[in-house]
Amino acid sequence: MKSYMQWVRTDFFPTAFCAGCGHGILLRAIVKSLEELKLDKDKVVFVSGIGCSGWIPSPYINTDSIHTTHGRALAFATGVKLSRPDFTVIVVGGDGDLASIGGNHLIHAARRNINITCIMADNNNYGMTGGQYSPTTPMGAKTLTSKRGHLEPPFDVASLVKAAGASYVARYTVAHFPQLVNAIKRAITTEGFSFVQALSTCPTHYGRRNVTQDPYEFLEYMKNNSINVKNVRTPEDAKGKILIGEF
After folding, report:
1. Which of 30, 50, 145, 205 could form a disulfide with 70 if both were Cys (CB 3.0 to 4.6 A apart)?
2. What domains are there in the chain, each with its CATH number?
């Protein structure tokens, strides 16, 4: 644990995340990945936007970081990578930050296939501002702004980024910790644009209205209702399931 903790600013603990928030698990997965890859801390830069996910790298990860405006993390990260191509540049954003106001930046970053790793902490709603629906909120889900059930289909962000030209795309839940760590490591070490969609628990808002407010039960729900894309043979196999794996 001592080697992992060199990547963490413990003087800022406890974190600002709500009790049971999956972003804390994702924070640990990122830190574990960095340590296992034996990266040089002085050559790692994190870029984040606004929202719950923006708190993951800054202030808790002990590297240089840029906390940018809403939706613009990838634009800032592109500038960092162009000026310092020898640096490992990692973007952490939420489903609102990357798939809504920052959606075009995400598509074009994948199209350019610039050597950046992008991790989307996806909790299916705007958790920081009260739980409004987001671009990844499932149809029928109840949120602060869709109290009778969401009417719009969600973005399949992993498939979108793959189609746009990314070199590596994966999706796992925070209930699949070893797989999530391996996906982040592969993303960082793959040349070109890499994207990891990390499905995260939000018991405070999304869970309370749709799944459960109990963090443990929420994780169990994610684990028991996921299926790897490699095991999908027919559309019926994926019905009602969370598709995970490497795309």
Report:
1. 50
2. 2-9+22-229+236-246 (3.40.50.970)
